[in-house]
Design a protein that fits this description.
The complex is a heterodimer. Chain A has helices spanning 16-27, 44-49, 69-79, 92-118, 122-147, 160-166, 169-179, 190-201, 203-206, 212-225; strands at 7-11, 33-36, 58-61, 64-67. By secondary structure, chain A is α+β, with helices and mostly antiparallel strands. Chain A has a 4-stranded mixed sheet with strand order 2-1-3-4, with helices on one face. In chain A, strand 1, helix 1 (16-27) and strand 2 (33-36) form a beta-alpha-beta unit. In chain A, helix 1 (16-27) runs parallel beside helix 3, helix 4 (92-118) runs antiparallel to helix 5 and helix 7 crosses helix 10 (212-225). The radius of gyration of chain A is 18 Å and the shape is globular. Chain B is α+β, with helices and mostly antiparallel strands. Chain B has 10 helices and 4 strands, in the order βαβαββαααααααα. In chain B, strands 2-1-3-4 form a 4-stranded mixed sheet, with helices on one face. In chain B, strand 1, helix 1 (14-26) and strand 2 form a beta-alpha-beta unit. Chain B is globular. The N and C termini of chain B lie far apart (52 Å). Classes of the chains: A alpha+beta, B alpha+beta. Chain A binds chain B through residues 51-52, 61, 64, 66-68, 71-72, 74-75, 78-79, 92-93, 95-97, 99-100, 103-104, 138, and chain B through 50, 59, 62, 64-66, 68-70, 72-73, 76-77, 89-90, 92-93, 96-97, 100-101, 134, 137-138.
Amino acid sequence: MAKVGEVKLIGAWPSPFVMRPRIALNLKGVEYEFLEEKFGGKSDLLLRSNPVHKKIPVLLHADRPICESLVIVQYIDKSWPSSGPSILPSDPYDRAIARFWAAYIDEKWFPSMSGIARAQGEEAKKAAIDQVAEGLSLLEDAFGKISKGKPFFGGDAIGFLDIALGCFIGWLRVTERTQGVKLLDEAKVPGLAKWAGRFCADGAVKGVMPETEKLAEFAKLIMGKFKAPPPQ
Amino acid sequence: MAGRVVLHGMWASPYSKRVELALKVKGIEYEYAEEDLKNKSEELLRYNPVHKKVPVLVHDGKPIAESLVIIEYIDETWKEGPRLLPQDPYERAKVRFWTGFLQQQLFEAIFAVIKTDGEAQERAVKEVHEKLKVLEEGIKGSYSGGSPFINGNSMGLLDIVVCSTLGAHKIHEEVLGVKFLDPEKYPRVTSWVTALVELPLVKEATPPLEKVVGLLQFLRSSFLESAAA
């Protein structure tokens, strides 16, 4: 068990990437100090700890920095092996499947999510939303195959892939609201729709996943600051 | 570890090459299935329906896609033979971090140089140099004790990715007329890459220079044509 002060996490409450290591630390029952970055600026500590990307989250374990959210989650899993359940599956093939989908989420699906906010005009927005929905449909299929009837991708407990995808649920709900669409649609992706509820209700996630209302307010704030000029 | 291992790959794909190198380092026997990317096999499409890309490793009929995922699978499944990732969690995190950087930042930047010309290419070249500078600083900081080679002369995951990203620098020079690996600006990166391409395993897995040059020239002109269209 880590002494208080030995584990610090540099992050910000709205960031889904920051939620990932927070959930992992909670699953392992590891106490940590949350160093909250102020919106709009980057602290000296952050710039020193992650000079390459200058991004959150950064885990500081006995003052050694670890960067990149999923690298951090795997680090946490290996560093506290006897605390809590194993975050990554125990079978190498299952691990490969989990890593494959995590890579898909970060490299293909999440960029399509950010594509919605960036899309200009009705047609572009609809195309962007369709792309996200298509991705969710693939993930629904994966959920069916991987969970094998259990509540989570990880089985009985939250695992690596649950964390990789689940961190985006809050923002998905905000998008549903602001765009007037249903993405975690019980009719189209029933497995994921129910999984999302279970994920957010889990003890390791509850204190970390912000209320949709709070996220929506935050979204309004940043959209206000980064509003694109109207099309000519 | 028994079991039939088949690698679906393509002779010029750096991603495919990474997996080949990993298999060779571990001394794993495997069958190789060359894919024609313009006419992908029914098996490839079945094994990798999400991306429809090489490489795909099939172990006892079970497919794994994504080169970095495959290499970690190889390391975890074949425990005899040299380790591809370090045991220590912090060292593993460093390897994964730099592998991610090479893949998402440096590789992409080099690709941009291949696809563009004129001002756009100038900007892309500048980016590659910026990324190389970061890598040079990173090696200095992360591996101040010496080479990232984890087993003396045996390649690990990070060596494999460095090799597949920068090993073709002479080809880049020939096709693009750009020299990236300046030993004065990037002494550590340059000596690392130079040592890697000299390894017998790497030489074995490297296709003939003219063949790769020819393909790269062809790829570059198709990119430029479709950009101009």
